Amino acid sequence: MAITILRRLLAAVGVLLLISLFTFMIFFWLSPDPAVQICGKTCTPERIDQIRSQLGLDLPFWQQYWQFLSGIFTGRTYGEGAAAITCAAPCLGFSFQTNESVTDMIVARMPVSVTLAVGAAALWLLAGIGGGLLSAVKQGTGWDRAVMTTALAGISLPNYFVALLLQYLLVVQLRWLPFPQSVTFTEDPLLWFQSYLMPWLVLAFGYAAMYSRIVRTNVIDTLGQNFMRTAKAKGLDAPVVLRRHALRPSLTPVVTLFGMDFAGLLGGALITETVFGLNGVGKLTADSIAKNDQPVIMGVTLLAAALVVVANILVDVTYTYLDPRVRVKSA
Amino acid sequence: MSLTAPRTISIPVAGSTLLEVDHLTVTFPTSSGPVEVVKDASFRVESGDTLGIVGESGSGKSMTSLAIMGLLPRGGTATGSIRLNGHELLGRSDREMRRVRGDKVAMVFQDPLSSLNPYYTVGLQIEEAYRAHNGGSRRDARRVTIEALERVRIADASRRVDHYPHQFSGGMRQRIMIAMALCLEPDLLIADEPTTALDVTVQAQILELLADLQRETGTGMIFITHDLAVVSQVAQDVLVMKDGEQVEAGTAEQVFSNPRAAYTRALLAALPRIDDPFDELKGTSR
Amino acid sequence: MKRRTAFLGLAIATSIALVGCTAADTGSGSTEGVGGEPVTGGTLQVLQNTDFSHLDPAQGFDGGVNNFYRLIYRTLTTQGVGEGAEGTEIVPDLATDTGTPNEDATVWTFTLKDDIFFEDGTPITSADVKFGVERSLDPSISIGSPYAKIVLYMPEDYQGFYISGPLDTIETPDEKTIVFHLNQPYADFAAVVGQAPFTPFPADDESVTTTSIDQQPIASGPYRVTEYQRGSTLVLERNEHWDASTDDVRKAYPDSFEWTFGLDGATIDERMIAGQGDDQNAIAGSVQAASIARIQTPEIQERTIQGLQGCTTYMPLNTTKPGMDDPLVRQAINLAVNKQAVKDGTGGSQLADIATTMMPPTVAGFTEFDLYPSEDFEGDPEAAKELLAEAGYPDGFEFTLDIRNNPKMQAQAEAIQQSLAQAGITVNFNLIDSATFYEVIGTTSQQHDAAITGWCPDWASGATFLPPLFEGTQIFEKGNSNVAQLNDPAVNERIAEIRAMTDVEEANAAWGALDEQIMELAPAVPLLFEKAVMVVGSNVAGAYAHAGFSGGIDYVSVGLASAE
Amino acid sequence: MSTVPSELAVETEPKGVLPTGSAPTPARRVISTLRKSPAVVFSVCVIVFIVLLAVFAPVLAAITGWDPYEFDPTAIDSDLGGVPIGPFGGISSSHWLGVEPGNGRDILVRIAYGARVSLMIAVSATLITTTFGVVLGMVAGFFGGLADQIISRVMDFLMAFPSLIFMIALLSALPAGNRPALLVLVLSIFGWPYTARVIRGQAMSLRNSEFVEAARASGARPVKIVFREVLPNLRGTIIVLATLAVPSYIGTEAGLSFLGVGVMPPTPSWGQMISTAVGWYAVDPMFFLIPGTFLFLTVFAFTVLGDNLRRVLDAGDAA
């Protein structure tokens, strides 16, 4: 077991290295000169050269890449002397447009993304699993069709469209909700909840749609299994049969999916955060892309990839605990 | 392999009819109209006796047993009459049938691996069956479970009770299924091709085990198989089915020695005659 | 000197662009503040789309941030308060007067007031002012207002305090006196020391570094920053060490200010229109075009302010490109553009006036003329075709327009494309990312035949308007603001003559006349004078649009009608 | 199992019982089954309608008299910020679906031209990803070994990538150029592994089937086996995957255009129209409702069709 995990970790590090290299290369060759970006409005060629050397942009590709990598573990210093800027480890880069370390920027925005992800995840698990179960148990009935049609719609509806629709209906027309505001839970719990409700709903809708389809397939699959017949033949109560025998085999595979999706969201729900003005990692990404703040884009890309890769490992480990066939070697 | 044993033991209880099935018809709706998968089947099972139902796959033999259990797949309807100890089973609510299942009629299925839930220990799966009908504490249930495992000759039962199905071999799994069925002391045991998925030596062990257990408990049994040779070893009465119809019914002796239906003759002709079962059968006749 | 307006150019261009795209800055012009005289106290909310560019006054350089700087920083002089010209007048702030020049205006002396302090109670001395300027000259942060770099006398390789040490040409004979030596006579130097990089910072505070101010500003004005989460919130509270008696400009009514950033423009408008809860105490930037229709009710009109931004949106035509080098072609384009459609795309009559001159009406010396008239400003494609034929393009003309990837500029560009098509002129778009737009059009090798951009004066004078845009000596490879690359001897000569004028009135009139002289060459198409329309909360008082800050609501004068 | 690389992408869910290698279901039977489903009939109608709309966009422009770029200043109110005159976003006898605020361009004609762009990009990307996905998937699944190792690692890598972020960053970094072509390229780079993964799995199971064994025994060259024996058996799967890929790309293209890195103006695009409409949502909701509805219906129709296709092919396989 330990060896398997270790091997997975090594592979993950490899993937992350590749992703960072790939991202770095793209920006190295395709992106406009970051020095010119930083130089901003009142720029001279001399000043550009200064910035280039300060940022190490005049170094060859591999040295720059190495600086970036080592910065993550040891931190790094830009420039020299009194004008030097230090970026403490783990340094994912330094944004010269905002004069902040990318790590700090991401950390500062993480709570919003986490709140968004946790709330949405709770909603979509509830709706997705509930809907999928209902649909599977009432297979072929009106309920099934209603849930599955809603799910198909959920998959087909772009979330920015849903966001606009909800905002128009619930806030502008019906005035059931106030405009979303950036308050913390402690400041005003009600307003906090009201402000997050729409983003949660919008984000959860698409995922719930997807999950209900998958849960339905899994449950129907499980219901057709021989062991379900055995359970019934034992004379168990129908709810017990469903709860104990159908649910666990149907939902265990969902864990894998959920882990990946949740990790993906921690890396920022780009569109939802942008549309609702939530200052999370996704918004940071969108803003940085608009400003072409290259170090931030690099940092976020890498973080998002790392989250997915780590989630992948965690999910695999969790899976072995949930499925005895993987956990216990056969005799 | 003792073929006479069950017979002698079953005699004291014979005569009290355990199960009477009359004019049982099972229909399924399809896009091209309803299809009868079992047509007008009638048979009886005496306490302590074994009825063998023989037929190819799709002949309706499994549907017959599922109809008795009240577990027909979605859409299937059964008409006619199924009486257990004189009580009509057809038309009962699912709730009432649940008390019949396991408690009065238990079933052992063909594929022991897929018939056990891979996510739970075998112990838990037997215990839950026991507790569903007898209530009681988990401790009692566990004790009964271990006893049942011991009865089906699983070595080291008190340890193995906490193992998962995939940790057992095929034969062992079928023993577990049998233990699960027997721990409830049912009046009727339906064994639906219990040995088909097993290799020959294991198959023999399981048959022997079933015979021993039947002798101990006096349970009536329906043994479903496509294998006439097996039927000849276990059943007193035989029912042959083809395409949902009952083509032959009678005592094992009658059927094997003097088959009336052409289909039965064909089946018999197809039997391997490495060692002629009929000689043996004749030898053990009353 | 030689670079001066080049830097300036791009800076201002960016600022107008920010105003345009964020709807978070502000406008100018109603006759009196909304809701009468404010009371002291309460929290004023500000809803804004994008965060401030920089809290470091050496780095930030647009109308919105300059307006904000006045709340936390003080400079030797500053702009006045009040509408129109009152607001753009240069008045003393930390200094006792607007400075004393020597005879040829190359040495300027200022004296500091008494009882002026930083937020920790340390008195502000002339050394602190000097340090603030020296610090702002560091190349890694000197991206704000360029005037210090342009006019101060200093060694060519001077790179700010941290690299090059103190600058000897700023003298501080005593704690209250500061003397600046300039590299040229500069009559408007009083306006220069009002620019944000002249903000004082404690000279002997070790914790002040090149980048620290952007994170932790040190207040000299009436408020200090108590909470700042970039992109989301900014809170100001009173600076107890600011003495109102030393400050004739700032009223500082509210006890605190609270900014919320990152809100979508439409959402800000909806919140301001609804005006519920805390939004009653809120102000915001100009509404979007879409919201104009929604603010027409009397209740909302009562709390609506509007005014010109004081900037010009225009389309420079690159006079060095083949075809575009022919004045006839440029005139034809001027004739063909349907400015009405451009205005509609920008939000219609409430958000923009049509421009026929380069200088906006808010600049002193503004002279009205229209050299390329058409009925209802809808363009005259027939006249344009004739001119094109005369120029040798009877079958039409084709050019590429650089535009910013931003909905409003795209709408303007599409309107131009559509109207020029009727005169047989094909316009192709080169869409440039918002982040790199000014870099591209300010790089002579990268810009195309035309662009859509804007310009705001730094203070209300033609001197900060026409030369950066049309003076031939100000064409630079990079950071170029003369996007038309106009290099006309007559224009160059006239600019030099006006600069030498000492009579302000005469100079202003001359700038006005020069505007017309330039437009005869048609190096650009003036499109619009955009306006700001702002809805404020029902409990907001003393709000008016300040002409010096792109028409934004003057932060130092606004407050609440009731503080509860 | 997670096939959704981004918030945008529509799930293509290759999991489950796709038709495997046994006898391909006769097309006629599939069609006759599908024709009985009202949902499928509805979807096909929607798709046909959208395709017709796209193909005959210029005809529509001629009928309505509006070109997609033509301004109509009489349809908007300049004094009210350029809001369309008339109810429901300026719907009138001359503008059947109303006009865009600010310039009065005809929404119906722009929707039709937008459909061209959307369909062209989605179908091109589908063709490319299907070709690459099928070829690479078959190579990986059928030959195994080193080829499989390499292809699988590349797929893992691309699927672990935060592709939405990356698509946006890439598109905003790339020079404007030919946007539709760039979009197809970017969608293809991140899209093919989702096809390849399913094909690989099926090719692996087909590798050991009797008819492949038989072909091998008869001395057929591997390449020939792949194209003559394996490929025809994957036909159903490929059709389903391609049908489900189209809506996914339409959705992603619209999302990228919504974020301002997709199709560039003045070229009309649905996502871009919705993006422009964000500022107008409270005043002129029709401006986002109309393109949003078209986008939704198109994606929905393709998804329903793909879903049903899969179900019928599965059932055909089971029967």
In brief, what are we looking at here?
Chain A: Belongs to the binding-protein-dependent transport system permease family. The complex is a heterotetramer of chains A (331), B (286), C (564) and D (319). Chain A has 331 residues and is mainly α.
Q: Could you characterize what this model shows?
A:
Chain B: Its main location: membrane. Chain B: Keywords: ATP-binding, Cell membrane, Membrane, Nucleotide-binding, Transport. Chain B: GO terms for molecular function: ATP binding. The complex is a heterotetramer of chains A (331), B (286), C (564) and D (319). In chain A, the strands form 2 sheets. Chain A has a two-stranded antiparallel sheet with strand order 1-2. In chain A, strands 3-4 form a two-stranded antiparallel ribbon. The model of chain A has no long low-confidence stretch (mean pLDDT 83). In chain A, 75% of the residues lie in helices and 3% in strands. By secondary structure, chain A is mainly alpha-helical. Chain A has 2 domains: 12-91, no CATH class; 103-327, Orthogonal Bundle (MetI-like fold). Chain C is α+β, with helices and mostly antiparallel strands. Chain C has a domain at 312-531: Dipeptide-binding Protein, domain 3. In chain C, α11 runs antiparallel to α13 (381-390), α12 (339-346) runs antiparallel to α14 and α17 (489-500) runs antiparallel to α18. Chain D is mostly helical. In chain D, a hairpin with a 5-residue loop joins β1 and β2. In chain D, α2 packs across α5. At the A-C interface, α2, α3, α5, α7 and α12 of A face α1 and α9 of C.
Q: Which term fits the overall shape of chain C? A: globular
Task: Estimate percent helicity of chain C.
Answer: 25-40%
Number of DSSP E strands of chain C = 21
Largest sheet composition of chain C: 5 strands, mixed
Strand content of chain C: 15-25%
CATH architecture of the domain at 312-531 in chain C: Roll
Shape of chain D: elongated
- Structural class by helix and strand composition of chain C: alpha+beta
InterPro entries (chain C): Peptide/Ni-bd, SBP_5, SBP_5_dom
Protein name (chain C): ABC transporter substrate-binding protein
Domain Solute-binding protein family (chain C): 89-474
Signal peptide (chain C): 1-23
